[in-house]
From TrEMBL:
Domain of life (superkingdom): Bacteria
Domain called Major facilitator superfamily (MFS) profile: residue spans: 17-427
Residues annotated as transmembrane: 32-49, 55-78, 90-111, 189-212, 242-259, 279-301, 308-329, 335-359, 371-393, 399-421
PANTHER family: INNER MEMBRANE METABOLITE TRANSPORT PROTEIN YHJE, SHIKIMATE TRANSPORTER
Compartments, as annotated in UniProt: Cell membrane
Keywords carried by this UniProt record: Cell membrane, Membrane, Transmembrane, Transmembrane helix, Transport
Name assigned to this protein: Predicted arabinose efflux permease, MFS family
One term of GO molecular function: transmembrane transporter activity
Length: 443
């Protein structure tokens, strides 16, 4: 085949991998986000009806956290499968697992119908959701970046990242639709509809992913028998530093998402007088802004110094995320909307860059395990944010302790991201036998 023809085929497959990554992560994040919305709006009276409302919301947020506690297990299992057997097989399995667990939540009996068994089953299915997401994100990033040319890794990694706002948009629209119904209908049957609708999305995602080819980088590694026998063991022995720095670098993403979409949703509707529909609209507008603005972060990363861009974006977020809480606290819809949008822009532009950062932080033989494990470990802290922030608010009676906590998360990500980029650049220079990074390395 002529070289130009082969390049054309490679480009088509890279784009196909990008779209498959986007559709799959959209389905996965839709499933995950509807749980967060439901935990803030309906799970407390449905599954914890025998305790005071303030305790019920804490218990609801605790079940939300369970999905993050099980993520590392999913990262280990699917990371091993992805690094040993293939990225594609792991991604097909995670999508099916997420679909089954989400539909299962939509079919659960409530506390009034089954007593204590209801919250137990809710916790179990939430844990399965966490297993699926633990293996999903890393594989989606890899299937996109490993099909792309090295210099376009940030751009194609952003395909997977677009699934997050797309999934959140669909999840928020679904809950906005059911909030139009009377409260009795919402609590009796309508809350189940967003979960049951997942079945349709999963079928679409599976059809697309089953048609995708394995990533060429993994295929070459497997054919030359360079796969690791136990990727997790290799990761622990030789790559703990990028894992720890990656955890710090990712934390700000969780801080925005779950502070705004879960904790602030409960705080605003319970304590500040916002109605559910109004604050869900704020979340929806923020998600639409994310979908439009986010890819520009990856564009900037391919054209200018990555470390500088990351420093500027996270420096802005250190101010913007606390400001969001202050503006929401005014009780004004326009100011709350402005605060949410202002906090969203720098955070999501950084989120687009983050996938490429992590993909370049690990060698191919442990890349799936490394990325998935790093993201899952961050989720153990990030998923607890609604519980932590609500506990600080309940314990002190003021929002300022919660604001201080998210500000610390932002600073941790700023220093962690800069250190991770420097470490990746040195690793690539060492592998290339150079004293300084080459043209394709991180700058």
């Amino acid at each position: 085949m002529p070289i130009t023809g082969r390049l054309c085929d490679d480009e088509k497959m890279a784009r196909k991998a990008g779209w498959a990554s986007f559709v799959g992560t959209t389905v996965e994040w839709y499933d995950f986000y509807i749980y967060g919305l439901a935990s803030a709006l309906v799970f407390a009276p449905l599954f914890f009806a025998e305790v005071p409302p303030s305790v019920g919301i804490l218990l609801s947020f605790a079940t939300f956290w369970i999905g993050f506690l099980s993520r590392p297990v999913g990262a280990i299992v699917f990371g091993h499968l992805g690094d040993r057997v293939g990225r594609k097989k792991a991604l097909v399995t995670t999508l099916m697992l997420m679909g089954v667990s989400t539909v299962g939540i939509g079919l659960l009996p409530t506390y009034a119908q089954a007593g204590v068994l209801a919250p137990v089953l809710l916790c179990l299915l939430r844990a399965v959701q966490g297993l699926a997401v633990g293996g999903e994100w890393g594989g989606a990033v890899l299937i996109a970046t490993e099909h792309a040319k090295k210099e376009r890794g940030f751009l194609f990694g952003a395909f997977a990242q677009q699934g997050s706002p797309a999934g959140r948009i669909l999840a928020t629209i679904s809950f906005l639709a059911i909030t139009q119904l009377p409260s009795e209908a919402m609590l009796s049957w309508a809350w189940r509809l967003p979960f049951l609708a997942s079945a349709i999305l999963v079928v679409v995602g599976l059809v697309i992913r089953l048609r995708l080819e394995e990533s060429p980088e993994f295929a070459a590694m497997k054919s030359s028998r360079r796969t690791e026998r136990i990727p997790l063991l290799t990761l622990v022995r030789g790559h703990t530093r990028p894992v720890l720095l990656g955890v710090a670098a990712i934390l700000v993403v969780f801080a925005l998402t779950y502070a705004r979409d879960t904790f602030a949703l409960a705080w605003a509707t319970s304590d500040l007088g916002f109605d559910r529909e109004g604050f869900l609209t704020i979340i929806l507008v923020s998600s639409l802004v994310q979908f439009v603005v986010q890819p520009f972060g990856a564009v900037l990363a391919t054209r200018w110094n990555v470390r500088t861009i990351v420093t500027v974006l996270l420096g802005l977020e250190v101010v913007a995320l606390p400001l969001m809480f202050v503006l929401i606290g005014t009780g004004s819809y326009p100011l709350a909307m402005a605060g949410a949008v202002i906090a969203t822009v720098p955070d999501v532009m950084y989120y687009a860059i983050m996938a490429g950062m992590l993909a370049q932080a690990f060698p191919p033989s442990v890349r799936y395990t490394g990325i998935a494990g790093t993201y899952a470990l961050t989720g153990m802290v990030g998923g607890a944010l609604p519980l932590i922030l609500q506990s600080l608010l309940t314990g002190t009676g003021t929002i300022w302790m919660s604001i201080g906590f998210v500000a610390v998360c932002c600073l941790a990500s700023l220093f962690g991201a800069r250190a991770l980029l420097s470490l990746s650049a040195r690793r690539e220079a060492d592998e290339a036998g150079q004293a300084t990074p080459g043209p394709g390395a991180l700058r």
